[in-house]
Amino acid sequence: MPNKFAWIISPKANWDDKKELITIALESGIDYVLDLEDSENIRKVGNFKIISNEEDADIYLVGIGGEGDGTLELKDNLNESVDLSKATEAKNSGKTVCAYILISDKLHEQLAVVLGKVVDYIILVGTDWTIIPLENIIADLQKENVKLIAAAANTNEAKVAMETLEVGTDGVIFEPKDFAQIKDMANLIDKLSTESYELKDLTITKVEPVGSGDRVCIDTTTMMKPGEGMLIGSYSKAMFFIHSESLESEYVASRPFRVNAGPVQAYVMVPGNKTRYLSELETGDEVLILDDEGKTKKSIVGRSKIEKRPLLLIEAEYEDMKIKSLVQNAETIRLVDENNEPISVSALKKGMKVKGFIDDSARHFGMAIDEQIIEQ
């Protein structure tokens, strides 16, 4: 399931109470706020993205808070919609645009589809949430470059919206009432955004030193535990599960925030079922941490460290596919064996089995595509 997200509507409360709820949202990873009156104060609380109808908004809003509210002026000819006119003008001026649409009848559903071909985001609000025609709107806009956001009062509504037609809306928006509600929504987003990869047992066919090269260590902002690491390899569609340095060694202390990944040209799996070259990673980038069951969580790169080190060629096969990759030739670099136990690359022998991921798709600029690409 693609990554999901949550926005909040600035709560109707005095500033002190509003500030506390907005702060909790930020601490929970929710940093987009729809607000029509307190944007200046909100920016002082933290680095938020403001959605409003102000000219300096991070995301320009149409359909609410404007003169007459465009959705209330809807005409049978959707091309004459006030919202559509405002959205088109804002897009042409270079703004990121969000449309707010109150779905009360079929005409508003049709307006959402028309606007979806112009704006960047659509907030869908139902007068009777249970009959919001989400399925129709999702189906009609699935090939458009627009993010759909459903208004939800609780996690039950949010979950239904983000799972409708399996694809679901891209996110939800809610007005926070208390600490528990914000945390529940944030936890739901994390759960629904989790990607899983089916790990296969790859059979080792060769292990040999190949000389030196520039090797990358990925230091993350996450403390990894034994059984966690990253998918890394020389082939974008066949990657090894490289274990984190979360284990103690007689040679060096554990560094549970680190994965000694491989040479600069290797790929690493990142959120959204995409890959990046190790050489591209910088502080602030996102990567995927994987456990030995294939479940993932996102993490931020705190530092990418490149040093010249001796390298080891690892060859393996899965069914009729040959897989190769390079790692640093050191006892502290580990893969994961067929029993989900970490194994040092210095202990690898022909015939042993290690965990890896085989992708059905080829990749172009890091994105999975349906195309035959030969990697060797």
Can you describe what's shown?
It is built from 7 helices and 22 strands. The chain has 376 residues and is of the alpha/beta class. The chain folds into 2 domains: 5-192, Phosphoenolpyruvate-binding domains (TIM Barrel, Alpha-Beta Barrel), CATH 3.20.20; 199-359, no CATH class. The strands form 4 sheets. It has an 8-stranded parallel β-barrel, surrounded by 6 helices. The protein has a 6-stranded antiparallel beta barrel with strand order 9-16-15-10-11-20. The chain has a two-stranded antiparallel ribbon with strand order 18-19. α4 runs parallel beside α5 and α6 runs parallel beside α7. The longest helix is centred in the middle third of the chain and has 14 residues, at 179-192. The two termini are 30 Å apart. Residues 65-75 and 363-372 have low confidence and may be disordered.
